[in-house]
């Protein structure tokens, strides 16, 4: 069979994360710039981001449940990557707020559903083969660094290429690579019996601790939304160049890479919930100071805390899910976690972030520090309620 000639599963999973975060590494720093170039103001940019996040609340759990039912996760991932490419291609000649919003929503919903499916395959490898999640996921962070640094240079060096659509051209190329990585994903076609699948899904969906975990993770992850949506625009307002901004984005992820690489060593010491608690503490410090200390030196120092605010939160959440969710409902659990933490919570915060940034500028980061504190409180409650 063709699959026997492909690299081992850990390499193929690493390629998936690398391709996924190649897209993210181009979009996070420069997609707001592309939207602003199409005439959208701060509130409209926030609405475009928020709409895509909210769409995940409905589409991602439905896709995850369908994947668990059919047991054909790789085929679904290939189809979703193809749909995302088509939607981004349609944005090439799009104009006007509503047309851009609808097409961005379609593209974002398709690609957002890929990560829970990919994570469910990876977590299965953690349980079955002892795979080190951090050292597979780290290649996504490496890819993000390369994309964030290189895309700024490419945009500056190629002013005559696709004027007005240079960012979109880079995104299209990255999504094409993501499609190829989905084709190469390890096969995951085992189907659980319907009764056991729904019984397992029902057990964790009715578990108060599961939802407390999801809400705590939502607070930790949604605290990044002002940074994701308006970090580049804020740094531009301080006079930072595109090259400097790309390096700042990359610096945060380099710190994240170090944490992922050491994750398996940190896990016995802190545990999944301890890692999430570190994220809350880091977020209070990072966001509490981000708008008060606006110089380049302060920005560079605070970017190192991305290792905690995102890296520790994500690693802790993934290991918590791998230990508490039955394999037969893994895709559904991942989808629910993603929909609430990265969809509903982050979408609401992103919509508010547009108004906060318009009114308060960099001082709006103080509101993100409050979200980190709420996430930390949720993790503390979850730790106190830990079953024997």
Topology at a glance:
Elements: H1 9-37, H2 42-70, H3 73-90, H4 97-112, H5 114-129, H6 133-157, H7 166-183, H8 194-205, H9 208-222, H10 225-237, H11 242-261, H12 263-290, H13 296-303, H14 306-324, H15 330-360, H16 365-384
Helix pairs in contact: 1-5, 1-6, 1-7, 1-10, 2-4, 2-15, 3-4, 3-5, 3-7, 5-14, 5-15, 6-11, 9-14, 9-15, 9-16, 10-15, 11-13, 11-14, 12-13, 12-14, 12-16
How would you describe the overall organization of this protein?
The protein is mostly helical and 388 residues long. It is 82% helix and 0% strand. It has a single domain, classed as Up-down Bundle (Growth Hormone, Chain: A), CATH 1.20.1250. The chain has helices at 9-37, 42-70, 73-90, 97-112, 114-129, 133-157, 166-183, 194-205, 208-222, 225-237, 242-261, 263-290, 296-303, 306-324, 330-360, 365-384. It is globular. It contains 16 helices and no strands.
Total domain modules: 1
Low-confidence spans: 189-196
Q: What is the number of E strands?
A: 0
User: Whole-Å distance between the termini?
Assistant: 47 Å
Radius of gyration, rounded? Answer: 20 Å
- Helix proportion: over 70%
Instruction: Count the DSSP helices.
Output: 16
- Please tell me the overall pLDDT: 82
Please tell me the CATH architecture by its name: Up-down Bundle
User: Would you tell me which CATH topology applies?
Assistant: Growth Hormone, Chain: A
Summarize the structure.
By secondary structure, this protein is mainly alpha-helical.
């Amino acid at each position: 069979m063709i699959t026997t000639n492909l690299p081992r599963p850990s390499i193929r999973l690493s390629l998936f994360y690398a391709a996924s975060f190649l897209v993210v590494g181009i979009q996070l720093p420069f997609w707001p710039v592309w939207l602003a170039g199409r005439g959208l103001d701060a509130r409209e940019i926030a609405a475009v981001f928020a709409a895509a996040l909210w769409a995940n609340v409905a589409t991602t759990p439905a896709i995850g449940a369908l994947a668990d039912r059919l047991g054909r996760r790789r085929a679904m991932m290939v189809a979703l990557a193809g749909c995302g490419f088509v939607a981004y291609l349609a944005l090439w000649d799009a104009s006007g707020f509503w047309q851009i919003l609808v097409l961005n929503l379609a593209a974002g919903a398709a690609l957002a559903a890929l990560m829970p499916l990919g994570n469910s395959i990876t977590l299965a490898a953690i349980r079955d083969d002892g795979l080190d999640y951090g050292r597979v996921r780290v290649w996504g962070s490496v890819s993000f660094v390369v994309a964030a640094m290189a895309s700024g240079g490419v945009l500056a060096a190629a002013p005559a290429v696709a004027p007005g659509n240079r960012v979109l051209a880079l995104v299209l190329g990255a999504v094409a690579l993501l499609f190829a990585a989905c084709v190469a994903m390890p096969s995951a076609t085992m189907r659980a019996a319907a009764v056991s699948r729904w019984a397992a899904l029902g057990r964790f969906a009715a578990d108060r601790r599961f939802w407390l975990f999801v809400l705590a993770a939502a607070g930790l992850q949604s605290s990044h939304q002002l940074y994701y949506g308006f970090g580049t625009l804020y740094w531009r307002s301080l006079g930072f160049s595109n090259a400097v901004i790309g390096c700042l984005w990359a610096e945060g992820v380099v710190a994240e890479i170090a944490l992922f690489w050491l994750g398996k060593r940190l896990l016995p010491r802190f545990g999944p919930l301890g890692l999430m608690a570190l994220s809350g503490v880091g977020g209070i410090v990072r966001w509490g100071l981000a708008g008060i200390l606006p110089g380049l030196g302060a920005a560079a120092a605070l970017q190192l805390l991305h290792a905690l605010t995102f890296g520790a939160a994500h690693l802790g959440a993934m290991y918590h899910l791998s230990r508490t969710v039955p394999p037969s409902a893994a895709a559904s659990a991942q989808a629910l976690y993603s929909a609430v933490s990265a969809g509903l919570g982050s979408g609401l915060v992103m919509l508010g972030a547009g108004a906060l940034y318009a009114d308060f500028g960099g001082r709006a980061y103080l509101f993100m520090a409050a979200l980190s504190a709420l996430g930390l409180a949720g993790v503390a409650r979850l730790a106190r309620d830990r079953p024997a």
